[in-house]
Amino acid sequence: MKRPLVLAVAAALSWSAHAATQTIRYEMHAENGKRIGEQVVERDDDGLTRVRFIYKDNGRGPELTEQFRLGADGTMIDYTVKGNSTYGAVVDDRFERKGDQASWQSTSEKGAKAITGPALYVPLNGSAEMASIAITALAASPSGSLPLLPSGTLTQRKLDEVDVSANGKTRKVQLFAQTGLGMSPQFYWATTDAKPRLFAMVIPGFMTAAEEGWNSVGKVLAERQKLAESKMLSDLASALQHKLTGLTVVKNTRIFDSEKATVGAPSDVYVLRGRISAILPAGAPVRGAVNEIDAAGRIMLPGLFDMHGHVDRWDGGLNLAAGVTTVRDMGNDNAQLQQILDEIADGRLLSPQVVPTGFLEGESPFSSNGGFVVKDLPAAKNAIDWYAEHGYPQLKIYNSFPKAILKDTVAYAHSRGMRVSGHIPVGLRAHEALDAGYDEIQHINQVMLNFLATPETETRTLERFILPSEKVAGLDFDSPKVKQFIARLAAKQIVIDPTLATFAFLKQRDGDLNEPFVAVAEHMPPDVKRGFYVGTMKIADEAAQKRYEKSYAKMVDFVGRLYKAGVPIVAGTDEMAGFTLQAELELLVKAGLTPAQAIQVATLNGARYTRTLADRGTVTQGKLADLVLVDGDPTKQIGDIRKVAAVITRGYVVYPHEVDKALGIVPFVKDAPMVKALAPVSSNLAEGGNDGALHRFTGSSARHHH
Predict the structure, then answer these.
(1) What is the crossing angle of helices 579-590 and 542-564, to 10°?
(2) What pTM value is reported for the model?
(3) Confidence of residue 563 (pLDDT cuts 50, 70, 90)
(4) Which of 138, 150, 427, 564 has its CA 20 to 30 A from that of 265?
(5) Is the dihedral of CA 619, 622, 623, 627 positive or negative?
């Protein structure tokens, strides 16, 4: 008889413990409806809060467990988080505030600060509950802003309010924009009670994270959020894009010839309605120009190409400030990208031009959930037809794509006039993707896996990063199999998009500054700079660290070997817009290219493999005026590529120092060549336009000159 009694007592005790705990669940769903994560928040009566957060897409994502208490002002007084970050690095972060003394420690940093009044601590890896705490605390702040720890200020303003309904229930929710973290606003939907908290986080075209039972309202919230965001973006575009009306002359510039990889004699370049109308020796007579930009001897580059972007609506400023005037988008939500392309065409979005690539993935637990996710050949052909009809020049195939239909899919894309590139689908190696007809391979790790993977290697998980990190160090690049593969790439002119700067994370030690961002860290907003020190990979010990460093150095060297063998290379990022492309060019130089050859890769090759060489890639009369003026000489010192003084594209001039200031970045160039209006000069007296009146008196509106 005792056992049931014990169970009953235990049940009663556990019930009373749970009765004192408030639980809020959030579910995360990809745009296609697939569940990709959850967050469970349990708050005890005594104020202790526990959070379980897990998010997985594309075979990776963070898993975190948090515990914290809030003070009377709604900000944290103690906090811990443990778990793993997106690529498996250990997360162990703690914060404590006693009175006016705050201290924090993580695997990559340690600090303390005296502070009076409320302040929000920002963990390096935190759950969405951190946004919820900020929403509540900022709503209670009379100014709508609060200091951040370790540094910075977070500001919140309300943009919208709407009633949403799901499962027979209706709620009023409000949209907040928070600024002060990162270089673009963060948008959150919150409850409208006295202490608002997170209701949903919507990333239009990608995912909705919402309170349990409310995911179906994501589409309504996304549309309203995009409208509110569009207003902010069009304001930014009108402030930072300066329209060039009439004929503009860019005087006294030395043009980088991207075909010969040389710099020419001083020239004057004429720009009219977004195109180059003439190139003359410097000092030639100016006839009828209305604007002048004095380049003062600066080097002019053709606009740079980032050949591996995943664009969003806030990337444009970072790209343009880095001299990137064309981005090849390598996979996006299709509807979202179409909207971006429309906004760029209308001049409502601060952005380079975008060349879209159609994303094609297969169904699996590891799928990346953008573009089209398919099971069979008819579905793959349907996706290719959609992309071809929307003018996409290229298809990108992803990790989970079914290998059985790969060859037929590639052939069909080719029949629709598209190039084909991608990751190597699971179970295959790069040489088999070439057998199937690939024109290009993305990422240096995908190339290296050709020598390391077996048909059983699970390349849809972190294994695709771990295996090259472990094994490339011991790979003999002079072995016949490696040499034969390089020779085949060269013979078939297979393009390699190595994204070397992105893969620097393979060897980054937690607490060290990630190599691609060393030159820019001091210019960044504080929270962005902090992020550069956070290690990504789980590196077991010192011996593993040495192996990973050697493997990465050999990957850089391998790209140099490819280039010398005549394999076409393109420069892409797949990381932070703008700055990463500059780092990519530095790494190409490290691989053995000259600075001029690296710039040639980012200009001529970019245009060639986006099929836009007819109007981009060189500074030539008749082509688009996508022009970049730089201080210093990046053809001799590649680091000078960061000193972009002015960018002309799409009929606008954009000044990086203005973009940098707007995004909280310390500018890289102080003295920019500004537009100066010239006194009107005409080849002739301008004729008026009152043709209707002329017709009344003469019976003809033609101004005859017989």
Answers:
(1) 80
(2) 0.86
(3) very high
(4) 564
(5) positive
